[in-house]
Amino acid sequence: MTGSVLQVRRLERCDLEARTAWFNDPIVAANMLMDYPASLADTEKWFADTRLDRRRRDFSLWVQRSGEICAMAGLTDVDERNRRAEMYVVVAPNMRRQGIGATAVAWITNYGFAEMSLDRVYLFTLRQNHNAQSLYRRLGFCEEGVLRRHVLHRGTRHDRLVFGLLKDEWSGLPWAHDAPLPMEIRV
Ligand SMILES: CC(C)(COP(=O)(O)OP(=O)(O)OC[C@H]1O[C@@H](n2cnc3c(N)ncnc32)[C@H](O)[C@@H]1OP(=O)(O)O)[C@@H](O)C(=O)NCCC(=O)NCCS
User: Whose CA is nearest to atom 21 of ligand 1?
Assistant: First the structure.
């Protein structure tokens, strides 16, 4: 994917079929705390219920050349009083390990700090999700702690790791980008 141009847009109804399929992918289902299996009807209901919710922003990224959707990322639990939000990312199962995850995390984090004036972006990963942890560490997120056996996911209790990035840490990172953010990015 090196050299490709990605476009970012707010999540649209036309993204929901891909979103449902991705959530049923074994690696995504093992690592993201969604109800399994996902159905298109539930995803459509979720979209209708949350579309105008000011406490979250959901985006999809697509490859300009092919029109293929390659990632979705968002900020949830947006807390205006404390100026913080939780981040998530998921990459199309057939497009992993091409730099799209890092590009999507950098873009959505830039969006949180630059466009939403957040002071803190944080996220959770299951302990087993080494791919995601390595990505967050590489980008400069700080591993803040472990919530021991915090969730019961698909029949097993799991530790959850907390990662966070503060605005003053973000501003010193090579990928930090102030507003206005481009909706077109190069991988
Ligand atoms: C975690 C996830 C978002 C990572 O996305 P990704 O697109 O694979 O991420 P990247 O390609 O940017 O980086 C992944 C690895 O590929 C490597 N990579 C990037 N571009 C590459 C390329 N062109 N060729 C070979 N390897 C490459 C990176 O160096 C990185 O390696 P590392 O793990 O040894 O550090 C993705 O695996 C995913 O969607 N997982 C399921 C959902 C999930 O777990 N979400 C996070 C919940 S916390």
Answer: 98
Ligand 1 pocket check for 139: Cβ under 6 Å: no
pTM score over 0.90 = yes
* Spacing of C-alpha 22 from chain mean position: 13
Set out the domains of the chain in order of their start, with CATH numbers: 5-186 (3.40.630.30)
Which strands make up the sheet holding 120-126, listed edge to edge?
142-153, 156-166, 120-126, 84-91, 69-79, 57-63, 5-10, 184-186
- The per-residue pLDDT for range 159-177, each reduced to its tens digit, is 999 999 999 999 999 999 9
CA of 49 to the centre of ligand 1 (A): 30
Identify the residue whose C-alpha is closest to ligand 1 atom 22: 98
Please state the φ and ψ torsions of residue 100, each to the nearest 5 degrees. -70, -40
Residue with structure tokens 């990928």?
Answer: 175
